[in-house]
Amino acid sequence: MVWALIDPGQFGTYFIDGDYPGWADRLRVYYETAMSDAEKRAMGMEDRLLLSEFAAKFTKDRGRLAEHERPATFVSQSPLHSLGAMVKLTDRLLAVDDRLAEIIERHEPGRHQFWPIDIRFHGGATPDRPYFGFVIGIFLETFDPDRSDPGAWRARGPRYSAITTTTPHVSKLALSSEAMGDAHIWRETRLSRPEICLSDVLHAAIAEAGLAVPKTIQMREV
Length: 222
What we know:
This is Imm11 family protein. This protein is α/β, with parallel strands linked by helices and 222 residues long.
């Protein structure tokens, strides 16, 4: 079995609004003093710094983040509230708590990137557990439109999307077992909604640990 991880659309337990203090300044210093002309050309920054190009590395297959590219602190003006073991931050960066980071790393050692991130709420309140920035390092094309229900998806240019991210549509999407191989958590390269998928093994390990993550929906494995 394979599972879709549904992107949380509203702020709350699994999605926090806020900012990364010092991150933009650190990138600006890097751009002005250390970034090579070749790297600027490769990222389309010959004329000016584009923070969006660095943020794209949170979700795109563009290699591991260097130290200056990794936000160290996230500050929300919301009051402290309960957080899931996985949360989405600004610019779609994921953060996971220490328990979930350990489970993912145990199943796929060295395949993904984690680093400590200090999450703070209004008044300086912090979560009970440590959190880590999390960049998924596996990108696969497993979606099989020919074996999915034609009423469950639509084409969006070169990519595909479920009609809605609800069970009636997502559960009718088919993913190729051969294409996913032994991966446990990955981003789809041609399926934009849902984009993150979990193996049944990882899904079961998270459930067994009693960790709260965004909604998951079982998909077809073919």
